[in-house]
Amino acid sequence: MTRLSRRGLIGLGLAGAAVGLGGSLGGSSAMAASEPFFTRTGLPLGLQLYTLGPALKDDLDGQLGQVAKAGYQAVEMAGYLGRTPAELRAAFDKAGLTCPSSHVQARPNSTDPSLADLDRLIADAHVIGIRHLVLPMFTIPERILASMTSGDDRRSLFARLGPELTVDDWMATADLLNIKGVALLKAGLTLGYHNHNAEFAPKGETTGMEILLKNTDPALVKFEMDAGWVVAAGVDPFALLKAHPGRFRQMHVKDVRATTKPNFAFQQDPTEVGSGIIDWKRLLPASHAAGVRDYFVEQEAPFERSRLESVRISADYLRALSA
Question: Over 60: is that where the pLDDT of 12 sits?
């Protein structure tokens, strides 16, 4: 897997090595298209609703209305927000949005269905209109959860995960994806996996991401590339797409600042799409040539302005971007 030096990471925002990689993935991707990417491809511009934070639960209709007004046509769920599937479908319909994808947890929880409750999950997906279910991260082994102390917070836990996960741990996640993928495919749904940057921590001569890609059935398991987390790991997203054509079905369109230092500990310096170092003019057509068909803007905290304003800035950039 191609890793980026500090200079190479910054170079993602320039017309450097990415040109050749983009060109090798799609014949016309190295040459600027005359039409905006989303107009040319006819694909909807989507938003991962996690971006909107707690305000979404308190004002679902208002927030979704603003998302649609900003130019988004689709959304990806990250939880039920205390609503029923019918209520969610009604809210999406009212805003004129579709919801083709949803993140879903592996473990049972008190509110939303998980991969442990496939019958309910499948039924809910059909009501909402979801076609793709995505595991948002690897399963955390019980031994790591059991070793947490009262002083551990979410950040300190995540910082441990990249180094502490073993090859067997990654294989367990691959097995889970394969098993659940069979049942979901029979129900007309696809199962995907969304990366952070811990997946790229070295495990001998391989990485967690390589283990997942090589040990999941391509007919059952697709991948959702989070471009921001790939770059935060110091990995070249162009090379990743080239090495695994057809495996990435979805993408989180996420940008990071040049101050982001390559790491495997869930750390990045986020910004609006088009304001960071990722060369979207080349990455969008390159990813499309490699098989990506769903694009969801996502931005991590902290935000320098309101979340809705950041969402609008990203949409304005992407809707106008010729690629």
Answer: no
Neighbouring-strand partners of residue 222: 192
* Residue-wise DSSP of 122-142: HHHHHHHT--EEEE-SPPPPH
The 10s digit of each residue's pLDDT in 248-286 is 999 999 999 999 999 999 999 999 999 999 999 999 999
Round to the nearest angstrom and report the end-to-end CA distance of the chain: 26
Q: Angle of helix 280-289 relative to helix 18-25, nearest 10 degrees?
A: 30
Let me know if residue 172 belongs to a domain: yes
**Alpha-carbon span 36 to 32, nearest angstrom:** 10
The string of pLDDT tens digits covering residues 184-225 is 999 999 999 999 999 999 999 999 999 999 999 999 999 999
Cα distance between residue 206 and residue 165, in whole Å: 13
Distance separating alpha carbons of residues 184 and 174, to the nearest angstrom: 15
37 domain-assigned = no
Please indicate, yes or no, whether the overall pTM of this predicted structure exceeds 0.85: yes
Neighbours of 293 (CB within 10 A): 15
- Total domains present in the chain: 1
Q: What whole-number distance in Å separates Cα of residue 17 and Cα of residue 238?
A: 10
State whether the Cα torsion 257-244-23-284 is positive or negative: negative
Q: Tell me, what CATH number does 113's domain have?
A: 3.20.20.150
Rounded CA-CA distance 323/310 in Å is 22
Distance CA 321, CA 308 (A): 20
Q: Is residue 305, in this structure, part of any structural domain at all?
A: no
